[in-house]
Specification:
It is a single chain. By secondary structure, the protein is an alpha/beta fold. The chain has one domain: Rossmann fold, CATH 3.40.50.620. Helix content is 49%, strand content 18%. It contains 7 helices and 5 strands. Helix 4 runs parallel beside helix 6. It is elongated. The protein starts with a strand and ends with a helix.
């Protein structure tokens, strides 16, 4: 695996701490790339569903998607600045978060993936799923996961 170490963020403080922990473990002397994911917007906002019509025009939907992408780019810039990684490549991925991260890792022959988990447990985790669980199961490379609950208890 000759590709980058993928640093995944959602812009949260927990993600920032997870990336710092991953960098402390793996070091900064590798090829790094900082990524975030924008999940696909709901097309039924325009097309409607069943008997209900859409709630926005295609132009409004496009503007919403552009704003979401801009927010993602701002998350990457802020995270890079706070970690001292301003020269690291930054990528906004699209789609379901876990799938997008794993697909990017496969496409770029990643050395490792670094991400955090908010430590959801029980029913909430079962209902909502877990990006970190998906990535650990499906990634084509080693995964470093920092558990926010475990870290806050130490």
């Amino acid at each position: 695996m000759n590709g980058p170490v993928i640093l995944c963020t959602d812009g949260s403080e927990a993600a920032l701490r997870a990336l710092q922990a991953g960098l402390d473990l793996l070091g900064r002397d590798r090829d790094l790339v900082l990524v975030t994911v924008v999940e696909a917007g709901d097309p039924t906002l325009v097309t409607g569903a069943g008997f209900q019509g859409g709630t926005m025009t295609p132009d409004e939907f496009d503007a919403l998607e552009a704003a979401r992408r801009q927010a993602a780019e701002e998350i990457l810039a802020d995270t890079a600045e706070r970690l001292g990684l301003t020269d690291v490549p930054k990528e906004v991925l699209g789609g379901a978060t876990g799938h997008a991260i794993c697909a990017y890792a496969r496409e770029h022959d990643a050395q490792a993936i670094v991400l955090g988990t908010r430590g959801q447990r029980g029913l909430k985790r079962a209902l909502l799923g877990s990006v970190s669980d998906h990535v650990v199961r499906e990634a084509p490379c080693p995964v470093v996961v920092s558990d926010e609950i475990a870290r806050s208890k130490t």
